[in-house]
Amino acid sequence: MRDTLDLKSQSMKRSVAASVSLLFLGFVSTITAAGAAEPTAARLNWYRGNTHTHTINSDGNTSPDVVARWYKEHGYQFLFITDHEFITDPAPLNALLGATERFLLLPGQEITQWSAEKTHDAAHVNSLFARKVIFPVGTRKCSGSGCGAIADANVPLATTFKANINAVREQGAIPQVNHPNYHWSVKPEDLYDIPDHTLLEIWNGLDIINNLGGDSGCSCDSRPSAEGYWDILLSRGKIIYGVGSDDAHDFSATAESSGESSGKAWVVVRAPELTPGTIEAAIRAGNFYASTGITLDDVAVIPAKAGTQLEKPTQPATAAGAVLRITINPGRDPERGPRYLTRFIGNNGATLAQSPGLEPTYTIKGNEGYVRASITDSNGRRAWTQPIFTDARARQ
Fold first, then answer.
1. In the CATH scheme, what is the code of domain 43-293?
2. Rounded to whole angstroms, how far apart are CA atoms 301 and 324?
3. Could you tell me the residue ranges of all domains in the chain?
4. CA-CA distance, 123 to 161, in Å (whole number)?
């Protein structure tokens, strides 16, 4: 298992007091004119969690209590169990393992959709905060220990995505599109009609998911990386949030060699406390980042005129002159530890700027459409911040 975070210490919640007006996605805090942090009445904390995990209730090899215990003992604060067409009741597990401000189990399901044309095509969608099981579009099919459905003939994947995501939203849950390059199933156009505020899995911890995309050698079948799908959708005017997750199935001693082990990708949510309501609100608002091992201490957008109110109440903090500032946690040995490079990315996935070091910044020009950060370290670990918007989406 990789030493990705100093799991017992760095991944525990970190208090964030921002300190007029500083806008970070859905939350408003304050910052001094000099940029120094000041305590405020409402403190926000970071909570590390996983949104995609399997147990013996579908095609995993381990019981829910053992899976939940693994995540708790490895520095996570919350976990969704997302078995195929099954919702594990979190109440008994929370009674056993839950602890105030330390660990929380949450309900989920993976909706297992296959295409009629190619039965291996996978258009899988998670339902986070699931209320009841959703059966996919088409004819029910069971394969091994998991069940799903095959779409009827001539029903494209795009239609199944729309139907299954609508079913998730109708019960008040949060949809997450999983591993778009799994079996090279999904094309970008299959996702054009997914609704705003859907989550997209931009990094999946399994070894068979093709996160980085690829070209078959035929120009007719080139697929972007999962992160590339994100930029395609953002560039089409969507509000989509990127997640990293394990999709872990194997918690045995040989899990690493099977390629299905845990602890490879996660999200870190910023919320005032660790409760189902606050975690849900933060995820819906995009108040989190995704990571495979890099820890962020802060992500902030500082308005152009710090020390004064914005000129117009409707003017977004991301207007020209605002500064996107990221603070990277250097770990225990900053001098000899990893080095970091941050790319600020905008419309069509273009690199707007890049910056080395522990506190990269980008000054908003106002015409980018969106700006997000992709951070890598010298050991190959990654982190991704959610997009901030410089167009009408900033007010949604």
1. 3.20.20.140
2. 5
3. 43-293
4. 7
